[in-house]
Amino acid sequence: MRNPRHIRYSAGAAALLILLGAAASLAAQDVMTFGSLKVKAGEKLSGFLPVPDKDGAGTSIPITVIRGAKKGTTLALVAGVHGAEYPPVLALYRLKDLVDPKTLSGTLVLVHIANLPSFQRRTVYFNPFDGKNLNRVFPGDPKGTLSQRMAYVLTEDVVQRCDALVDMHCGDANEALMQYSYWMISPREDLNARTKEMALAFGLRHIIIDTTRGADPADSKYLGNTALTRGKPAITTEAGLLGRMDEESIAKNVQGALSVMKLFKMIDGKPPVLADPVWIDKYEVVNSGFDGLFYPKVEMSAMVTEGQTVGVVKDYAGVVKEELKAPFAGIILYIIGTPPANKGEPLFEVGRIKK
Q1: Are 338 and 174 in contact (CB under 8 A)?
Q2: Interatomic CA distance for residues 328 and 218, integer angstroms
Q3: Which are the contacts of 325, defined by CB distance < 8 A and separation ≥ 6?
Q4: CB-count exposure of residue 57 (10 Å: 0-12, 13-18, 19+)
Q5: CA 246, 133, 83 angle in degrees (round to 5)?
Q6: Per-residue pLDDT at 275
Q7: What is the pTM of this model?
Q8: Pick from 321, 320, 298, 313: nearest CA to 345
Q9: Backbone dihedral angles phi then psi of residue 325, each to the nearest 5 degrees
Q10: Region 251-274: what's the mean pLDDT?
Q11: In the predicted structure, residue 25 carries a pLDDT above the cut 70
């Protein structure tokens, strides 16, 4: 006959093992994984999202994950999709030091430099390894070129893991660009309402009502649209210009990010009310028809009339090849601020102000 004490001890040990196993399971569930980072509540960790090598080209994406002590929204802030757009990059490094996980609700994912090869090589628009614009190849391809693999990693490890996303841009090193944001319209009204709130919270006065983004998640092209096609509210912001690192643009990006965090109740306070937004209900990018030199006739934020000459392109002998005119009356959202003109590449963008 077995000893009753032994039976009681065995039952108690089994119960203890069950409790320990449950605790371990809960602890494992409380860890969020981003690439090589395993982040617990109340932690702030920095590291990389690896992009595997293929054909001799690979890279990594520097990120910081800040998990609050309290549960809440997982918000992704992404900078550096274009490597020469510096104010959002510097803003996220500043935000990394500002946000305290002890007072944060939810999780903040800071993608500091999404396109590290372009950042390192100081290239405009394109990845130096494959000549692709990262913000045209989402959701990416794990077997594709480097840009496509970078887009795939960002889609899987950031977009799929977050509840909301802000894709933070500015004028590239060749673009004189006024501050504005894109309110991208999706087929879902609930998403549209939330993204409108995000655009207003970020606080850039001019807001483009963008109805041009596709609804196919397999061909989303743009980072922000990749989130939208997966049911995540997202906006794209533009604050900064011409490769500068001016304090005004950096601070505007920091303040905009903090305001969106307030909107999602991740930190204390309410986002400031944007009292006088200017809505842009149509926009058009005008591209160069020739290689040569661009001579702008107006500056960014200028009001133009339909058919007004905005700039001219001359060939390398100095002969005028084309005069580029405004397709409709509106405001110059950006205009190329450096001489090179390349056939098929943008020279300026006009936006029509909604009445």
Answers
A1: yes
A2: 33
A3: 307, 308, 309, 310
A4: middle
A5: 25
A6: 87
A7: 0.90
A8: 313
A9: -115, 155
A10: 97
A11: no
